[in-house]
Amino acid sequence: MVYVGIPKGQADQEEEVLKTIQDGDSDELTIKRFTESREKPGALWHIYAAKDTEKIREFLKKVAEEQGQENPVDHDPIHDQSWYLDRSLRKRLHQEYGVQGWAIVQFLGDVVFIPAGAPHQARTGAAVHNLYSCIKVAEDFVSPEHVKHCFWLTQEFRYLSHTHTNHEDKLQVKNVIYHAVKDAVGILRANESSLSRP
User: Fold this and answer.
1) Same domain, 106 and 192
2) Among the four residues 56, 81, 137, 168, which has the most C-beta atoms within 10 Å?
3) Which residues form the JmjC domain (predicted)?
């Protein structure tokens, strides 16, 4: 989080932000960062374990049906990013499916790491009403430990409609592997003579 702009002259603004942080299930230490240390909150994240993805997907489809919405085969409630799990939905997800995530308030200067395939949502501006302007810098990368999971995500993207923003292979996993192997072979060849000595 490289920038958080807090407008001046709105007395009730801090109360709204505090309520949002509390309603977001943030822990006491996080709340103290805002109330006592006076740090600037920019975004409220909820991150879930990758292993819970199917349960979350099933839950969102169930809620959509209850609200009379369609669940087209070529759409995905997680990748569509059309849902925000508010406090009541998070509570219901925990009660009905045993899924509980982590609430993280990202303050100015904080970095949030999201593991491969971990469903997540963010309320930017730290308040439901986007009271604070913020700028975040995001970087995606593929670690060797999560290549298998990245392939799985790429397969999920292929089943989305052709007009879906996530349909394309954004991760480029095959290209990453190709270039990693090419570089490794190049280094081995360059040092071949020193490797063959006893």
Assistant:
1) no
2) 56
3) 1-158
